[in-house]
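QUALITY CONTROL LOG
STEP: pairwise intake check
CHECKER ROLE: data steward
CRITERIA: each record must contain a sequence immediately followed by its structure tokens, with no blank fields

ENTRY 1 OF 2
RESULT FIELD BELOW
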Amino acid sequence: MSELSYDVTLFISHVLKSLPFLLWGIIVSSSLLAFLDEHQFVAKLPQNRILGAIVGSSLGIMIPVGQYGNIPVTRRLLLQGASIPLSISFLIASPTINPFVIWVSWGVLGNYPRLLFLRILGAWLIGIILGLIFSAYADKPSGKSRNLSTLAIYSTLLHSGTLLRSRNTPQTLHRTGSLIYEYKANSAIPDHLWGRCLLFLDNLIKEFLELGSILLLGCAITTVAQVFLPQAQLLTWGQTPVTQILVMSLLSLVLSFNSLCTPYFINPLTNKFLYGSNLVFLLLSSLINLKSLSLLFMTIRPKAAMYILILTAQLMILLCFALNFYLS
């Protein structure tokens, strides 16, 4: 009975630490839909792939949605017409390039400024690199693909974006299921504040129900994996530069801490593990953990999500191997 109580408590703790970040990201996403003119917004964004990747990787400073919240905002950026380099670099870097995360990390890891600097620089550079890699992705449906949903016309990176039942009633908005992704015409944009607020609430509720249900599933999977993972034994296996990185990579995946909590976990290990081993946990846990992956794969099409996962993990692990072997 006590073990079941522990499992339930662990699950609830994961939910409480995750849902607020997702909710904040959905609030920002709904605000972009309801209160921002799409055409003016796109016109102000850089279209050059290099500049777009740099701006996207730095955008977390101005839009501090953090982990879990970065996924609905990335989807909204793509639907509003932002370039792929900007959107992907924002997705990768924003959980770390965030004033709140930087502030908390400085408070916890202030005695290790080199580790803190490497975390920020590594996330920023990897976000830019991923954005540039995905700039070669042709975000247009082929003429042969007639089965694509109307949403795919806007971005073939995205799923239809809903687990809820479609509405067949006449709409002044383009929808796929319950996901609102565009106004049918500029005249359909509510002219008054009350109409925009209603649209904001409508999208907020539906996106939260959709993505919140996925996040709850991710929390349940994380709880099960964490209960059966021998954490203490894994830490004792990290005796060499290679095994330390492998152990910390596995822990970052399963423990699924958010960006604000990872410095607290890593702080007691800074004297025991090499810089690269600590850094790989800080970098990977910000994006590649069971809860984030559940949202990523349900929002972005599997092939693109797999590319994001593999390329990001490779770049982060290679960077940390280099630190362990050459700079530690």
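ENTRY 2 OF 2
RESULT FIELD BELOW
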Amino acid sequence: MMMPANYSVIAENEMTYVNGGANFIDAIGAVTAPIWDVTNVKTFSTNIVTLIGNKFIGKLVDGTLGVLFSGNTTWGDVKAAPKKLFSTGNGIGDDIANFLGLTAAAYNLGRVDVDNKASSASIGMTQGDGKTHVVIDGIKI
């Protein structure tokens, strides 16, 4: 069979080189595909949410339960709590990031058990100044 002078038979797997090769995303996918699968992506995503949630957990607890159980709560504090919790005062971008962080913190609270300080508390008695004192976690009562 006669072919034109500028024609050559090339295997299909070599066509990539003729057509210009892979782009950056394809190259990254080719390298990471054997390493990462769906479980790795899920773990990575969960860990990112956990890290963000850990940063915001104190703000979430202080802005909700901390307001209600502070011992000095007024109705004014309760009404002001959502604005204090969700508004940063730095613009809409920071407010959105703050909201996502608080959402990640709430997700963490629903996903794992929290530490219980009562399970590690120690209670004892001391004497020394002629009196007996009850001691809880090293603090005289």
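INTAKE CHECK: passed for both entries
DESCRIPTIVE NOTE, ENTRY 2: The first strand starts at residue 123 and ends at 127.
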